[in-house]
Each structure stands twice: as C-alpha cells, then as structure tokens.
Amino acid sequence: MTVSKSLSSCIFLFPFQDVTQQDEDAHNGMLNSSFEKKVRPFLDLIDNLRAVGVEQDVSLPTVAVIGDQSSGKSSVLESLSGVQLPRGNGIVTRCPLALKLKRGGLNWKCKIKYQTAEQQFAEDIMDPSDVGEAVLEAQRMLAGFQKGISKELITLEVESSCTPDLTLIDLPGIARIAVEGQPPDIERKIKQLILSYIEREETIILVAIPCNVDIATTEALNMAQQCDPSGKRTVGVLTKPDLMDPGTEFGAIRVLNNESIKLTKGYVMVKCRSQRDVEGNMTLEDAIEVEKSFFETHSVFKSIEGKCTTQVLANKLTTELVGQIKHLLPGLRKEVDKNFDETMEKLNKLPLAVPTEKKTRFFFINGLIMKYTTDVHSSALGDYYRNFKENRMIYAKARRCFAKWLRFVKDHEETFIRDLNNTIQTCMTSNTGRELPGFVSYHVFENLARQHIAMLETPALDILKEVSDIVPRIANALADDNLGFLPELAKSVKMALEELKEKQCEEAKTLIQKIFKMESQIYTQDVLYSNFLDNEESENLEEPFPNKSSHKAVTPKKLTTWLNLSVNEINSGTCQKDIEVMSKHLTAYVKIAQNRLCDHIPMVIRHHLLHEFSSQLQMELALLIQERNVEELVEEDPEFASHRKHLCAKAKRLEEARRILLVPFTSIPSAD
C-alpha cells in the first residue's frame, strides 16, 4: 500500500486554518517544525529512559489509554498512529502496547519489540498493513493462543511525517463477562493490570467513551475517577459520534463542554473508521478527510470549535504529556539518584562474583575463608573490629552466660549460709562420738564443704552447654553471611565447625569434671584461709551469750532466746559454740572455693570454645579447601547469582538513566 500522500492528508498537531490548501500546508509545516523542536526533546528524554528499561525502577510520565470493550479505543489509536491495529469483538488488546510515535521524514518506519521468557524480539515492519498481524503474533507469544491477557509490554515504534510526537500505552479493554478461552476472573485481572498503570501519579489517563452509551455507566471512566478523583490527570475522548440517535447530540455536547462529569483536562470528540469502513478498505488517510468533513457539516457539532477531530486530540495529548514531563523531571532525577545509590549499596554488600578463570578460584576461596575465620575469631574473642550485629557477637553472648553462672554461685552461697547452722547441727549430732564440746570434727567440715561444691558441677556443665550452642549458631550465621552464595562451601564449613565444636566441648567438659574432682579434695593456702577466717570472725558483731564485761541490760526477749538456745543444746547434745566455729570455717572455705570456680569455669569454656575453637577453625578450613575439589566448592547458588545479576542490571539501567538525565534543564527548550 502507499505509505504517504500529500501533507494535507496527514495528522497535524494544530487545528484547521481557514486558508487556502497551499498556504495551510506551508503554515502548518512551519508551526509543526517549531513545535517539534520544543516538544521532541522532552519526549525523547522519556523514550530514552523507557528504552533502557528504567521504568522497572521508577514511574515515567506516560499516557495510558483505557476503555470498555468496543469503546472505540483501538480506532482512536489507529488514527493517532497512522497504522492499522488489531480489531475485532471481545478483548483485542491482550498485552500492554506502548505506541511510540515520532514525527520524522517522508519514509515510514516501524519496529516491534517484546521480551519473552527465553529471548528478546525486535523486528522491523516494512509495510503498515503488516502491523496488526505483527501485534497479534507478539500477543500470542506473550499471552498464549487462547484469550487470556499478559502484563508483558509490547513496544511499537512508528516514525513518519504523518504521526504526532507522542507516546501512549494501550491497555486491554474492560471485559465484564468471561467468554470461552478466558479465565473466569478475566475482569479482575484486566482491572488489576489497568490499575497498575493509572494509579501512578505520573500517568495521564486517556479514557475512550462511546457517545452512544450513558457516560455514567462507563467502567473505564469510573476507574479513572477512583485513581484521579480531581480529574487533573484524565482526558476524555468521545468516540462514535456518528452512531448517536438523532436528538441525543446535545447530551454529548454537555459532556464535551465539561458540564456533565467534569474533568480538569476536559474532553475531545473524534470520529474514526468503523468496522464497516475497514471492511470497505477505507484508508486511514481517507478516514481523516471523512472525519474533517463530518464535523464541518454536522448540524450540531459544526458549532463546536477546538474540541473535535483526531488532530486536536493529538495536539492536546502531546501538550499535556510534555507538561507532565516538565513538572516531574526534577523529582524524577532525584528518584533515579536515590534508587541508584540504594542499589549500589546493596551490591557493595554482596560478595564478589566467582572468578571465571580456574587458576584464580583457589585464591578466591582462600580469601573468603580467611575473611570468614577472621570474623569468627573476632566475634569469639570480643574484638569487634567492624560493626558486628548483636546477633553476631559470640563473646558478648558468652559473657552473659558467665554472668549467669556467677549469679547462680552467689545465690547458692546465700542459701547455703542461711541454712548452714541447721545443716551443721544435724551433721554434728549424727557424727559426734565421745568428744567433749570444743573439739570440732574436721571430717564433718570436709563432708559439708565437699557436698556443697559438688552441687555446682551440674550447673557448670549447663553453662558449658549454653555456650556450646551459641558458638556454632553464630558461626553458622557468619558462614551464611560470608559464604552463603556458595552452598557447597558453606555446607562443608558448617560440618567442619560442628566437628570442631564437639571436640572442644568434650575437652572442656572433661576439664570441668577434673576441676570439680580436684575441688572435692579440700585445699587452700593456709595464709589465704586464715585471712578469710579472720574476716568471718570480724563480721560476727554480736555473740549469742552476754559478755561478762558488758553492762548492757538484758531484755526479756534476749533472755528467752538464750534459754531456748540452752534447751536446744541440751536436746541436741551439740554445743552452740561448736556450731558457730564450724559455721565460720565452712563459710570461709566455701567462699574461697566458690571464688575459684566463678573464674575457672568461664576460663575453661572461654579457652576451649572461644579461643581454641576460633584458632583451630582456620587451620581446619585451610586443610578442607586443599583436600576438596575447588570446582565443587565454587558452585554459586542460582538464586544468589540471579539476585546479583538483577542488581547489576538495575544498577546499569539506573546509571544509564542518570547519564540521560544529566542534560541541563536549560538545554531543553520550553514547550510552552
């Protein structure tokens, strides 16, 4: 088919002028050239951003075209683009279709692009009559051969002397009832897809509304009002004015004049090719002339100026889109910069990618192991050279366990001292033979001290168990942090550290048991013991019986206490003085022994499970990577590799977007 005719049959961006055809062509040519210089840089800017894919990361200004089924939406897009798009009953647009229209030279150019799960397609279309089938084929590739829809975008780039400078997104028409081949929830899916575009504040909403239906029942307009209550982003396009019943035109004029359902950006009326016109082989160029004649000769609509024809709509949409771009451009730059910084921060936190060269992989793994073991060593010894998270601090958590051990020992000591006199009396009564009072039994002393110390062994082993649970848990977490992207290496490291932990835990347990076995052999330095004993005696400020040299009055209460003590001594056969002496000796020794245990148990655990564990781990892992097949260890987790690839691609997109947006505001001419 013929691609271009005379300029008079093309879609210009300005209203018709009441001048001769030759003057009109010249005048329109100059105006269009001037207008193009003003608007094209803005549109190119957004198209270039969309071309690098940055729309995945930030919302770009665009015009989204929506409408109910059979609203004439596709016909409007045909008139604007100059190419024949798929037509028919039911859902024709099954994927979002980005129409990038560019006013260019005399040669018509068109390219279709889309991305499937397997590959990216880009194909030049040589003839306008082939566009419809190319779009249908793309829809079949993305949405299947039935009648379902897809959210994947098809891009159609059209350049000719007869198209406006404009980019639109055509969205599926709203279906009310699912037909054969469609999912039952087709209406919900279409609305979700439409909302994903028109909810964005950056989007201008173009709503196709047939003149021959009640505007209040138009679902597309209702959706636009929900997302844009003020109507500041919505443009209404009234279609099919030739199908109105005679006498109903004045209702359409009320809508067109914004007197019915008000939109800040108003309405435009167009008359496009009908299905009968298409079947009658009416060209798009002829359709423009027919539209012009329809509005110039219509008894009602001929009085409406500046609100009818496709060229008025094209001019309005271009102006609105450029205005939206100008308004959003400063914020868009900031959003791209912010997204880029956040993406680079995430990328910098990721480990380096596995080298492709085999000879460098060993050094790569060795570096990872050194970094990991350094982290474990620092965490275990409390040397936090970097900002460890609280849940990555082994020593801090072990220290809490040691403090818990100290509290338990001190609480146990208080309980022991509180019940000591009764315990001593019971023990001495059952063990006293023919000794006279004053001869304290060392055998009783040893038994009581030994019993008390032995009661601390199980709690000490419990503390060991707590710390032995903490160490591998945090070491495993650090392994995930450092090595998680290499599953086989992380798995091998975790197995090695578990074996090492068991070994060190067993050694610590054996040593703790030896310590308690040694503590069962009552011993301390004589001088140290004497000092503790002196301290106990000095703390005893009040004697149970009155001092003969004391001249303090004896109260009835104290006298009763002494009498009771004397009676108890007679009944038990044990001298209270002997109990006091034994109590002082036991208290002094228990404090000495417990002080030793308060330090020794944490020191044993610290030595084996913190220091030795972290020190030997590096040697164990160095041996591991020498014995194992390096190729197995460097196999990267697919999800992690995909995540890195995604971030790298995103960073690349955003970096390219930053470059595009570096164009100074002053270098873009005003579109006003």
UniProtKB/TrEMBL annotation:
Gene3D superfamilies in UniProt: Dynamin, middle domain, P-loop containing nucleotide triphosphate hydrolases
One family name in Pfam for this protein: Dynamin_N
All copies of domain GED, residue ranges: 579-669
GO molecular function: GTP binding; GTPase activity; microtubule binding
Lineage top rank: taxon: Eukaryota
Entry's Gene Ontology BP terms: receptor internalization; synaptic vesicle budding from presynaptic endocytic zone membrane
Cited SMART domains: DYNc, GED
One GO cellular component term: cytoplasm
Keyword Lipid biosynthesis among record annotations: no
Residue span(s) of domain Dynamin-type G: 57-330
Keywords tagged on the record: GTP-binding, Nucleotide-binding
Family listed: Belongs to the TRAFAC class dynamin-like GTPase superfamily. Dynamin/Fzo/YdjA family.
PANTHER family reported for this sequence: DYNAMIN, INTERFERON-INDUCED GTP-BINDING PROTEIN MX
Protein name: Uncharacterized protein
Taxonomic lineage of the native organism: Eukaryota, Metazoa, Chordata, Craniata, Vertebrata
